[in-house]
Design goal:
The chain is built from 2 helices and 12 strands, in the order ββββββββββββαα. By secondary structure, the chain is of the alpha+beta class.
Length: 174
């Protein structure tokens, strides 16, 4: 299996089993394959509008060992927990207390691509798109306005204190 922008792939055992794979044979000649994996991907993130930013990250996978006539992916079914979506259906939205983003999972249409060196060989790929959106006024307040306000208030306070009082306290400390 080939995963674009992959940094790490760990095969995990299925619930209650020792294997990470399962196969289903369906009529007339379809083979369904599923596998539980933990994938770490690289995504380009642009933070120009932080903390009101949004990003798109594509999880694309296929098998460059078999051309389209030997292996063709159907459109993806994407699941999170007990909720699922497929191509053309609404995305699955979820929030995590560990993330500062609202995350949406969108199942995309499968597509064909060729290797760069071998234009005549076409391979099937499937795609899941992750939408990351942050619209956090709280982060803006806590990360920028409150610290800036405290710094400004302490600066103003330093102008209120006369330098004679500071000199007396400094001499008393020595």
């Amino acid at each position: 299996m080939d995963v674009l922008n992959l940094t790490d792939l760990v095969r995990l055992p299925m619930y209650g089993g020792k294997s990470s794979k399962s196969y289903w044979l369906q009529a007339p000649h379809d083979l369904e394959y599923s596998e539980v994996v933990k994938v770490t991907l690289l995504c380009d993130l642009e933070f120009f509008n932080f903390p009101f930013d949004s990003h798109v990250c594509d999880f694309c996978f296929g098998d460059p060992n078999y051309e389209v006539d030997g292996l063709e992916f159907d459109d993806v079914l994407a699941f999170y927990g007990n909720r699922g979506t497929s191509y053309g259906q609404p995305s699955i939205f979820f929030e995590s207390p560990r993330l500062t983003f609202e995350v949406a999972i969108e199942a995309m249409k499968s597509y064909n691509r060729s290797r760069i060196a071998l234009e005549d060989e076409i391979y099937s790929y499937a795609k899941i798109r992750l939408h990351l959106r942050r619209d956090s006024i709280g982060q803006l307040l806590a990360g920028f306005y409150i610290p800036t306000g405290i710094f400004a208030a302490l600066s103003v306070l330093s102008f209120v204190i006369s330098h004679e009082q500071v000199s007396k306290h400094c001499i008393a400390l020595h």
